[in-house]
Amino acid sequence: MIFALATPVAQSAIGVFRVSGAGCCVKFNEILNKPISDYRRVFLRDILWDGVIIDRCSIVFYSAPSSYTGEDSVEIFCHGGLSVIKSLTGVFLSLGFREAGPGEFSRIAFENGKLSLNEAEAIVDLIHSEDESRGMLSSEAVAGKLSNMIRTLGNRVDALRVFIEGSIDFSDEDYDFISEGSVNERLVKIRSDLRNLIDSSLVSTKKLTKNRVLFFGPPNTGKSSLFNRVLGFDRALVSNVPGTTRDLIDSEIFYNSINMELVDSAGVRETDDLIEAKGVARSGDEVRDSALVLVVLDHLTESLAKDFSLVLNKKNHLFVFNKSDERSPRQAYDCVVSAKSGEGVQELKKLIFNSIQKNNRGSKKTFIIRERHLILFKSALSSLDACIDKISKESDVDIAAEDLRMVRSSFDEFLGVKYPDELLGDIFNDFCIGK
């Protein structure tokens, strides 16, 4: 039997504990002022220990398999005082309950068939979602929509294997299984559907889900000063010496309902300084992983604008002219600011917000998937291509059947029907305690 606090350890109005395991309801009844005999209903009860009332709580019992984990479960809604939380933790340990590890409730739910592996992963993405659009994409996966689509594709693959294997087993019969089953056409349609699913999915990374905004550009253009000004306090070291910022500095800002992670980077230039060179290289990696890149230039570096346009290519970016208090720009910019006086900074914040919003809306994505899922889907595409090639040439039909088996294997690993032993640990260790 396991237990965990499902809410943050902080003073609040309500704290929520979760308990799961065979016999936990019977065990928990031992410390209530009045036993609970009904399930899936809310009861108000006093929790007693050594004759002392610990707290008056709302309590819900769940019986297996009709619970989140598929086991007998209890949810306790207590007052959120730290002393209450500490006392209840002691009570659970004294009853013989073990404190749950990260994601252990969801792992049990997966092992008991209450969730597919993708649905379990989507729970983490939903918890980590920084804005409504990504939250909605994660919710679709939590609800099982993506898993159901993959199951349907897998069933279609299985149906085609029947025709392909039939053409092998009954090759002497006067019946063309491949032609009569429209195998090639159906294979092409499955491939098209899978390709469309990949194209309509957003590959989730911790960096991208945080709406990372990278301050990028040559050294000494005032990136750090502008970073501090937008943030509202001094987070980055500021100096007139080029190359002061030698590592990535990040900090979060909440603006107009969007949480953004601002990242100050090392100046992009040729350098013999090994430490700074590493910072510049890391800045390049951040360009790829950022939702928006702010190219910060000044009157001494305006000529580099075209070079940065070529480097960024189709990456979402804005050109910002800094130090307007010293000199006006000679060309057009998305925003003109002075980090020193604060002129234009509020307008820059609005531009950043609008760009992030437009980028999120314009993506027109249907699901959030992980890098693991993308690898599996691309593997399935490759096997489908190999199968289609063999079927169209009417050669190596037996190997074509094996190609379809590999497609199904990729889908099964996505759903968690089969998986490497270390995979579950990697996935559920990302969960918070109590989930």
In a few lines, what is going on in this structure?
This protein is of the alpha/beta class.
Keywords for this structure?
single chain; 435 residues; alpha/beta; Gyrase A, domain 2; Four Helix Bundle (Hemerythrin (Met), subunit A); Rossmann fold; 3 domains; six-stranded mixed β-sheet; 15 helices; 14 strands
Provide an overview of this structure:
The chain folds into three domains: 2-100, Gyrase A, domain 2; 124-200 and 369-428, Four Helix Bundle (Hemerythrin (Met), subunit A); 208-362, Rossmann fold. Mean pLDDT is 81; it is low at 234-247 and 269-282. It is flat. The strands form three sheets. It has a six-stranded mixed beta sheet with strand order 3-4-5-2-1-6. The chain has helices at residues 24-29, 82-94, 104-111, 117-128, 132-142, 145-169, 177-180, 183-199, 223-231, 274-289, 305-312, 345-362, 371-393, 397-415, 423-428; strands at residues 2-5, 12-20, 42-49, 52-62, 73-80, 98-99, 201-203, 212-216, 249-255, 258-264, 292-297, 317-321, 335-336, 367-369. The protein contains 15 helices and 14 strands. It has 435 residues and is α/β, with parallel strands linked by helices. The longest helix has 25 residues, at 145-169. Strand 9 (249-255) and strand 10 form a beta hairpin. 35% of the residues are buried.
